[in-house]
Amino acid sequence: MDNNPTPAGGRPVARSRPRVALASVVVGLSVAAATMAVASGANAGTTLGASAAEKGRYFGAAVAAHKLSDSTYVGILNREFNSVTPENEMKIDATEPQQGQFTFANADR
Predict the structure, then answer these.
(1) Which of 60, 63, 83 is nearest to 74 (CA)?
(2) Which of 1, 3, 32, 49 is most exposed by smallest CB count within 10 Å?
(3) Handedness of CA 72, 78, 79, 84 (dihedral sign)
């Protein structure tokens, strides 16, 4: 039996190869990758700050002092971040509104 039939023109006819095995490998790898992603996600912290802390990093935000009176905003800050820094309260116009007169009240907040 001829495995590579040749038509009258002399060129071999390309036969289609079974792709079932290749498809099985691709599906298997996809399932394995998805399983690993879910497993690593399950071990991740429940907040952004906790996830960063697990890797020895900080996840922070710059915060404007006037936002600290908004309880929803502060709740999100406390839940999601493990580091905060003053937004504009440490800039020269905020810390020294007049030459020689310093104030750090909002930065300290």
Answers:
(1) 63
(2) 1
(3) positive
Contacts of 48 (CB under 8 A, 6+ apart): 59, 80, 81
Q: Which residues pair with 83 in a beta bridge?
A: 60
In the numeric block, the tokens 């290749």 are attached to 22
Task: Select from 76, 70, 63, 73 the least CA-distant residue to 109.
Answer: 63
Phi and psi at 83, nearest 5°, equal -160, 135
Residue 77 burial (10 A CB sphere; 0-12, 13-18, 19+): middle
- Answer for the pair 80, 47: CB distance below 8 angstroms, yes or no: yes
Burial of 7 (0-12, 13-18, 19+ CB in 10 A): exposed
Name the more confident of 9 and 98.
Answer: 98
Residue 18 corresponds to which tokens in the numbers above?
């079974």
Calculate mean pLDDT across residues 70-75.
Answer: 94
Q: What is the pLDDT of residues 14-33, one digit of tens each?
A: 555 544 443 333 333 333 34
